Amino acid sequence: MACSQQIISEKSLPGYFALIDPQNVPVICTDPGDKDLVQRAAGFLRRDLNAVTGREAEIMKQPPASARTVVILGTIDSSETIQKLAAQKKIDISKLKNQWDAYLIQAVEHPMEDVANALVIVGSNKRGVAYGVFELSRQMGVSPWYWWADVPVKKKSEIYIKSNTQLTDAPKVKYRGIFINDEAPCLTGWSDEKFGGRNHKMYEKVFELLLRLKGNYLWPAMWRDRFFEDDPLNAQLADEYGIVMSTSHHEPMMRNANEWKRHGKGEWDYETNGQSFRDYWKKGIERMGGRESIVTVGMRGERDRPMTKDGTPIELLTRIINDQRDIIADVTGKPASETPQLWAIYKEVQDYYDKGMQVPDDITLLFCDDNWGNIRRVPKAAEMSRPGGSGVYYHFDFVGGPRSYKWINSNSISRIWEQMHLAYEHNMRTIWIVNVGDIKPMEFPISFFLDYAWNPEKISASDLPHYAVSWAADQFGENFGSQIGKIIFEYSSLNNRPKPEVLDVDIYSLHNYDEAQRVTREYKNLLAAARRAGAQLAPEYEAAYFELVLHPVEALANLNELYTTIALNRDAATRKDPAANTLADKARELFANDEALSDKYNSLLGGKWNHMMDQPHIGKGEAFRMLEKQQMPEVKYAPADSPPITAAPAAVLPSTSQKQIPGGAKGNIFYEADAVVSMNAENYSRASNANGIEWTIIPGIGRTGAGLTIFPVTASVQSPGKKGSPCVEYEFYTYSKDDVTIHGYFCPTLNFRNAPKGLRYAISIDDEVPQIISINQDGRRKTWEKWVAYNIIIPSSKHRIATSGRHVMKFWLVDAGPVVQKFVLDFGGMKKSHLGPPETLFKNFEPAFFESAQEVLP
């Protein structure tokens, strides 16, 4: 996915040579003095070639004289063969010099005497060779997820290479990795059963996956484990695989948190027990040795809590980091600045940063999101050129408030893209690390995160739906990419309206806008599409399709129907309607079906993934704790002898202003319906770009569609209302007049610049003076909890229009960063709902909601 240039064909074409055909199997050549990972990469290539074609390639030091085609692997500094080919100007390695993790794949005619063709894969370092090999494997038909998601290898009898192939690639972000976290009960139960724990047998699978995804960095599982102590081969193999190891944001000096329980002496208090910590940390750096690592510096309280209950201990933390750097220098025998380090600006540590705490410039500032995918800070302008740079610690999974979420993928790649684009444009390019929980079932967002980290400049906002299609094609074949990709893209957007763990009986309205029933229908329609697509796949794809597509869609459709059914049950029981009893029984069936779906996942392929779906996810529990077990929500029964229910009065049809819209009107025009005008932000009537600023639509980022923002995200503050200032306009017609409230629906973007008034927008109707409104100035915890739980911020403004009829609403972003999803103009008719009123777009008149509406003229 990270590289789109195709270099192989299954057919013999002009300008191609055979890698494998009925008469030819390539010889794989490596220099015996080259790195361990180069030798491993050769083994992986031989295995992948066999998996694709059924043919066995040999690995040799030099090709035999009779070789027709060879594949040569090597690094620029350790392979004599590569150096010789470069000296003979048969390959061009100039773009690899002084590059990090770069690779070259080049076809060479007559690379040596008696050899017709070679495919040369060169790395600027050992990882570069592996990335080149796995790029070739991916194009041959081996998914990075062949083992972790059981994606079948796409069989081919012949493989041909484009003769003029010269593909060079290198990452834009230096360290790109994952954090295995919150791993109980799923990954721990699974790995205990399959591997006997989180040992080198399991981690070899993780290391290989990371390399196939072009990652290079890992924070290992730490809830119950000691990566470096539990199995000494863990760290050794990580180094051989080229995986840069570190410890998480709250585990300093290459010591896992659980090691303190075994080796720590005294209290977890540096002021009173400093020498014990220094001795303890020194052993961590000694154990690290010369392996590629990033040392976490700083200190938090025990069990990932604040170090002190009160105050901001900047002086103490500064002293701790200075002491840690003294240890690093003493043990390594070189300046501390020559050992990569990070300082995680996580939770309360950000308060220290905001109040002026500084660390040496060679330390990477690792900024963090709020655990819900919203970046809290970006570096100040003066920090963007620091030698240590900066990076991001991001989350796909979290245990904590306002609700733990770790059951299933609820991460929209559109939001990931928007937030990581924000990071990249603010030069946060040294480390990107994401908490992925148990790895499964986060396959799709993990792929996207690491692909985007490789080259953020190759994936634009408009590319996001295509990314899902391309990813699906890689897993299930080109013929099914479009169909399945659309399903994946849609479910990962729907699943964040809120996250499944936040979902409850009263989230969606039963009585307003047909909301609860409409959401349930959306999931049912998506499930029907997923089942149709799955039925077309060959039988060998059944397990992969269930894991990656069908299970999440089916589980989410079932969960939403469960909560809607319980809401209907309670509503009927309140009215003593006997239908409540049928609904109660149906709800219990849906609850049981949820468990059956988890059991089906756990029993796939003879139980290969047993325990991976053990996470409870239905029930209240405590807000800051993950559920210990499933809890069937309460259902109610009506008395058997309940009297007949009087039919509810017929709904009053909504009044609309559609007939005011002139015949032949063009463009997006909105109308009032039931004293409300609802407008999705991307459906503006007109947009003006100016001062180097462009309005950009981000598909799939909103709860009911796309989102709208301005780029670049580093733009300076804008002056709304001034001639030439970039704005968008929305034309609408009303039958109401006088007072109106405009509600803006925004993604829960945080005040990442720490501006006194937060991030702001401006809005006006017709010729009134624009009002400037902040979306996130209120930083109280309770307010933030509501933002992230419902995945929306809804600021409001008051306006007044003198007459009914045609009007124009104008919208400006004063600060770059906010993403608006929709606007609702409320003339007094807005009803309570989670998603807001459906859009009243004249161009896309939707019969489901307003087909029989009464027409009202002024």
From TrEMBL:
Keywords: Hydrolase. Gene3D superfamilies: 1.20.58.2150, 2.60.120.1620, Chitobiase/beta-hexosaminidase domain 2-like, Glycosyl hydrolase family 115. GO terms for molecular function: alpha-glucuronidase activity. InterPro entries: GH115, GH115_C, GH115_sf, Glyco_hydro_67_aGlcAse_N, Hex-like_dom2. Residues 670-839 form the Gylcosyl hydrolase 115 C-terminal domain. One of its GO terms (biological process) is xylan catabolic process. Residues 41-136 form the Alpha glucuronidase N-terminal domain. Pfam families: GH115_C (PF17829), Glyco_hydro_115 (PF15979), Glyco_hydro_67N (PF03648). This is Glycosyhydrolase.
